[in-house]
Sequence to fold (162 residues):
Amino acid sequence: MDDVLRRADEYATAPVGGNVASGDASAVLNNPNITLCSACRQDLIDGIIDQRVIDFLAWAGQRGQVAISVLKTGHSQFVAGTNRVSNHWEGRAADLYAIDGEEVTPSCASCRAFAEAVEALGDGRPTEMGVPWADMVGAGGWNVFSDRGHQDHLHVGWPGTP
Fold:
């Protein structure tokens, strides 16, 4: 743990292709704009989170404040109601429960603006995003979905092979 924290002081995020910053776990762990649950923090320390998720969190933390409720640990193996393995289970997803100090709800304007900024990303954009706004479903020709399970957070995820 001390090594991770020491290294955090040595690392910074830098822009790469597209609009998503390349980050490392220690930079995410020590970004004051990123609130992580204890299991999320441990997932990052343990090195079980996909680099694309880390890069996304680095980008999000540069944009403003974000709070993460789950990465891998604590999420079910399967997508609710299916036999499809969840991207969380593989360390390839994140759930954001607050943006810029506001909890994600259908009426949160800053949360919606964040989701729209994610939608506008080029390279590095997640391949799936769960939102509480039904009118965003199918927008931009990519996998944006809304259901009862995504009314209080934003879900972002990536497929198995980068």
Summary: Confidence is low (pLDDT under 50) at residues 1-21. Residues 7 and 34 are 18 Å apart (CA to CA). The longest strand covers residues 93-99. The first helix runs from residue 2 to 8.
